[in-house]
TrEMBL record:
Its cofactor is FAD. This is Proline dehydrogenase. It comes from Elsinoe batatas. Converts proline to delta-1-pyrroline-5-carboxylate. Pfam families: Pro_dh (PF01619). One of its GO terms (biological process) is L-proline catabolic process to L-glutamate.
Amino acid sequence: MHSRTSLRCLPILANFDVISIRSGLRGTKTVYQHRLNTTSARSVSDASSSPPPLTSPSDQRSALARLPTTGIVRSLILGSFLASPLLFNPGLAFLQRITRSKSLLLNPDRNWLLRAVIKPLIYDQFCAGTHEAEIRKRVAAIRDLGFSGVLLAYGKEIQIYEKNNTSAEQVVAASKHDEELELWKKGNLQTLDMLEENDVLAMKFSGAGIFTVDAMLKNEPPSTQMLDTLDAIAQAAARKKCRIIVDSEQQSIQKSIDRWTIDWMRKYNRGDRPVIINTLQAYLKESRDKLTYQLGLAEKEGWTLAIKLVRGAYMSNDRRELIHDTKPETDQSYNSIVHDVLTQSLPGFDRQKFPKMTIFLAGHNQQSVDKATSLVEKLDRDGKLNIVPEFGQLQGMADDLGCRLLNWNENRVSSNELRPHCKVYKYMTWGSTQECMEYLVRRAVENRGAADRMKDDMAAMYSELKTRMVDALMGRKARTN
C-alpha cells in the first residue's frame, strides 16, 4: 500500500487538469444532429414539456434551512460580485492574473493578505480544503446536510501544449514517465483514503503527466505502466466500495479518453456494482452517437455502461462546430438523453430487453432537474423505474437546488419505504489555494453565465437570512427539516 504523506506536500502532478492543448488533431464528425431534432427530441418535449416545479416557494425556504448561515452569507457576497459588471470584470481579470503569475507576491499560498481574501470568500465556497483534517470536516458537513456522499478530486491544473511546443522543462518531465505515473497514482490513492463507502473518486487522465497526454494526442493506447496504474487505482476503489468517474476534457484528447475508459469499464464493470463511470457531454453534437455506440458495445460484450451526463465545460477550448449551435439545443440534447435512458427507449435498443446501465445526472439547470424528477415519479407510479438516476452538483453552485433534491427524495421515500432512493452528491475539489485557482476561475465564469438563475437564488437567500436574523432577535429556535 502507499505511504501517507502530508497533503500539502502531495506531488504537483497528482491529477492535473489540462487547461489548454494546442493540437491539429480533428475529432470525429457527428452524424446525429438531424435525429436529435426528430423522434427522440419530440418524445421528451411532449412527455414533460411543462413538468411541475421540484418544490414550491415554501419548500425552497425549507430547503435553504439546511444550509449553514456562513454559506448563505458567502453566497450572497459572491452573488453580488458576480452580478455586477463593474466588480466582476476587473475581479475576474485579477483572479486570472493570479492563476498565471509566477510571482510569489501574487501566490495566495505565499501571500497571507491575498490568501485572507481569497480563501474565505472564494475558495471555501467551491473547494473541500487544503489538508486532510479540513477536507474530512467539510465532507462530514456535506453528509450532515443529507447528501449521500461526495465526488472528490485533486484540484491542481496546468497548461500542456502539443509536443512540438513544449518547453525544455516539459520535455525533461516527459522523459520521466514512471515518475509522473507514480505521483498521479499516489495522489489518487490518497484521495481515495479520504472517501467512504459509496463515495466517488473523480479523476482526469491528463493528470498522469505530459507523456500520457502526448499519447492521447496521438491516439495511441495507454502504456503498460499506465495500465498497471489504472489497475491499482480501480482495485483500491473496488475494495473500498467506491467508484471512479473519469471526467471529460478537451476534444483534442477526448477520443483517447473515451477509448481508454471503455477498456477500463470492460474490465471492472462486469459485476453487480460497476466501478468505472465515463462522462458524456451533452453540448457536443456527437453525444447521442457516443451513448448509442458505448451502450451497444456494453450489451454485446456483457458489461455495464455507467455514464455521468453533463452539459459541458470546455466551450472556450473545443472547436465551435462540434458544439450545438444554441443553448436550447444543448438543453434539448441533455433532456432527451435523460428521457430515453430512464424510459429505456433509446433508438436502436429493445425496450423489453434494454441493456443494463447506470446514469449520474450532473448539472445545475432547474428545468432539467424538474423534468428528470417528474419523469422519475411517473415511471415509479407506473412500476417502470428500472434505471434509478443519481444526481449531483458542484460544491458552491446551486446549493439550494441540491437541498431541494434532498427534500424531494426524502418526501418520496418517507411516503413509501419501498420506493427507490435517488442518491444526491456534491462534487468537491481539494488542494492549496494556489493549486485550485484555475478551478476557481472556471467556477466564477460558470456562475456569471447563470445570472438569471442567480437573481432568483439570491432573492430566496436574502429572505432566508432575514428570517434567521428575526428568529435570532426574537429568541426563536432555528428551523430544522
